[in-house]
């Protein structure tokens, strides 16, 4: 649930500004350091670039939060010392060059922490699971329309290995029927790969399904990537559900697929149950989908994140509801009042609901039990908690969102195997 991730210490906000400097400086270039806050650490990268007009452009990255190119203003900048500021969030960094390192202090809202930075940009993190072309299967670029909301969604239809999309038949005749899965992303506008911190989980899942005989359709969220139209600012999960429903209708109209299911991550899992209750899908894979009312989930999320960051965790559902951001954000106003119970109970198709026990955003201990209790009894249902996995189903240390980008793994191999095995057993 990208939308409901709380900011962890450095909520970097873009500002404009350049640092004036009248003499040469040894500080030009990139500098990288770790800001340690209790059990949490944040990677910060500082860039100082000489401009043709004599100014030095100063920008900052927070890779662990997916923030790049944030412009900062200067308090001073000399040959071996600096002080930069991002006033909107009350942040300053003062440092002096010492033994080839920037030895400084990071300050924000009355809190000061040491921050030593060394020369160089952050090393590129490997993503070994990201598929590389050429693929051993065929793909097709498609569009479908949610006419009610005026949204045209663009996506990639991935056929399984051994399927000829032109003839509509399996090569060699070894596929008795073709199953397809529609992917629905988590909260916030995301592309068809659900890309986050250079991870592409939906691409990884689509590739794995294709190599095991299952087709899939993943699409850019409305007004994102190649998708056009559709209200975003005031949209809620009900609006996004209609986008997903349009995708299911498109797949049914192709008349190529015997079973058509939904795989939803986080908010996408919530939407999957909305579609299940409306009998729009043949099966559901809920990756960390909510099982409790929105305000309850968000209060628990906030408390878990604060606990792991070494802070006091006393947020109640009512306190969460009173926050200014909630009152001013239509999606949050809708979400805090949404209770998924009825839609889960009325989803009579087979369901695989899974979560990691280190998920800090949709807590498995809070959300999996009600899903299991509410679902109609069925031998085809599977509820599974995975030890050591976070909200993205990565093996992790703490589960904090700041780890997502640091981990090379995009999604657990066990999760991929279980998804395929469960779908194949339907």
Could you give a short account of the major beta sheet?
A: 10 strands, antiparallel
Helix-strand makeup class? alpha+beta
**How many β-strand stretches?**
20
Shape: globular
* Residues in helices, as a percent range: 10-25%
> What is the averaged pLDDT score?
89
Note poorly predicted spans.
3-24
Distance between the termini: 28 Å
Describe this structure in words.
This protein has 426 residues and is α+β, with helices and mostly antiparallel strands. Helix content is 23%, strand content 29%. The chain is built from ten helices and 20 strands. It has helices spanning 201-210, 237-254, 267-277, 294-308, 317-321, 324-328, 330-337, 341-345, 364-374, 413-424; strands at 19-20, 29-37, 40-50, 55-62, 67-71, 73-77, 81-86, 91-98, 101-108, 111-119, 139-146, 151-158, 163-164, 169-170, 179-184, 214-219, 259-265, 284-287, 351-356, 382-386. The strands form three sheets. Strands 1, 2, 3, 4, 5, 6, 7, 8, 9 and 10 form a ten-stranded antiparallel sheet that branches. Strands 11-12-16-15-17-18-19-20 form an eight-stranded mixed sheet, with helices on both faces. A two-stranded antiparallel sheet has the order 13-14. Helix 2 packs across helix 3. The relative contact order is 0.12.
What structural keywords apply?
426 residues; ten-stranded antiparallel β-sheet; eight-stranded mixed β-sheet; 10 helices; disordered N terminus
List the helices and strands and how they pair.
Elements: E1 19-20, E2 29-37, E3 40-50, E4 55-62, E5 67-71, E6 73-77, E7 81-86, E8 91-98, E9 101-108, E10 111-119, E11 139-146, E12 151-158, E13 163-164, E14 169-170, E15 179-184, H1 201-210, E16 214-219, H2 237-254, E17 259-265, H3 267-277, E18 284-287, H4 294-308, H5 317-321, H6 324-328, H7 330-337, H8 341-345, E19 351-356, H9 364-374, E20 382-386, H10 413-424
Parallel strand pairs: 15-16, 15-17, 17-18, 18-19, 19-20
Antiparallel strand pairs: 1-4, 2-3, 2-10, 3-4, 4-5, 6-7, 7-8, 8-9, 9-10, 11-12, 12-16, 13-14
